[in-house]
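Team,

Forwarding the record for the chain on the shared tracking sheet. I've put the sequence and predicted structure together so nobody has to dig through attachments.
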Amino acid sequence: MATKTRLQTAAELLRQGRLAEAKTRILKELQLTPQSAAALELLGAVAFEMGKHEEAIDYLRRAGRLAPSSPGPALNLGKALLEAERPEEAAEVLKDAV
């Protein structure tokens, strides 16, 4: 199965609220392609939905470093930072993203 298809499946599981399954698939993808910004961003979204905001922040920062021109990781990072009650950091990240 191609990387895009694996991540699409994981994204669909996330949309369905099947977070543990989505996380498992994304972690398997990261074993195959550890530098996948898309997989790290998706893993950050799963962690966020699980209420694991610090974990989400870590994954989203990593995704942002791998794909600095992509706005997705930065926007999701800002959201996670707000939920983690770190509004100053969130403001800085979001300012840089736009």
